[in-house]
Amino acid sequence: MSYVLAILPSLLEGAQLTLKIFLWTIIGSIPLGLIVGLGLTSRFVPLKAILKFYVWLMRGTPLLLQLIFVFYGLPLIGNGAFTLERYDAALFAFILNYTAYFAEIFRGGLQSIDRGQYESAKVLRLSYWQTIRKVVTPQVLKIVLPSIGNEVINLVKDSSLVYVIGLGDLLRAGNVATSRDVTLVPLILVGVIYLLMTAVLTFILRKLEQHYSYWK
């Protein structure tokens, strides 16, 4: 028990970084995903083609490769003009990646909305953005929430990939303690902390699904 208490502060410090990456990725990627999703359903062909390519690229290559490219590859372009700090590089790569996944989810939700909803909004003299905000978005959220929930849970686990660019996240803290003390206890604690985080998120997501299930 004394050993657990001794290493717990370093693990919690790593968990704090993990949560920061998770929260900022959610804050950045979900709104951007909705915007890109709207673009994917647009009738403007050049925009739609560009966004389709972006989604295909982000979903078709590993997030680990994207992290390495953003941190190690971008500085090679323009004589270091695109150099990012480790944390900024991780956040940039995560937001780019998860925006693409959320965009596909929102695209499916948007396409499931009956065109009559838009026609009704026109009759009520609502602008396009008023229609999206007041009519379409609440219905889309109800449809896509389970899929978004799955990606949110995946994001918690994917955050461990920042270890590859040297960030001191939860997994790195556990690995350092395991290598130093030659024991599996730190990794077991890391697993427990991840399970606690996913359990809390699962509970919150279920409450949200129940809330939107009453929406008519």
TrEMBL record:
A single GO cellular-component term from the record reads:
ATP-binding cassette (ABC) transporter complex
* Annotated compartments: Cell membrane
Give a GO molecular function annotation for the protein.
transmembrane transporter activity
Offer one example of a GO biological process linked to this entry: amino acid transport
Where would I find the ABC transmembrane type-1 domain in this sequence? 15-205
Tagged with keyword Mitochondrion: no
Main location per the UniProt record: membrane
Keywords of the record, alphabetical order, are: Amino-acid transport, Cell membrane, Membrane, Transmembrane, Transmembrane helix, Transport
Give the membrane topology. Multi-pass membrane protein
Q: Which CDD domains match?
A: TM_PBP2
Transmembrane stretches, start-end: 21-41, 53-77, 89-106, 182-205
Q: Which Pfam families match?
A: BPD_transp_1 (PF00528)
In which domain of life is the source organism classified?
A: Bacteria
Which NCBIfam families does the UniProt entry name for this protein? HEQRo_perm_3TM
Into which family does the record put it? Answer: Belongs to the binding-protein-dependent transport system permease family.
PANTHER family, per the entry:
L-CYSTINE TRANSPORT SYSTEM PERMEASE PROTEIN TCYL (PTHR30614:SF0), MEMBRANE COMPONENT OF AMINO ACID ABC TRANSPORTER (PTHR30614)
Name of this protein: Polar amino acid ABC transporter permease
> Species name for this entry?
Liquorilactobacillus sucicola DSM 21376 = JCM 15457
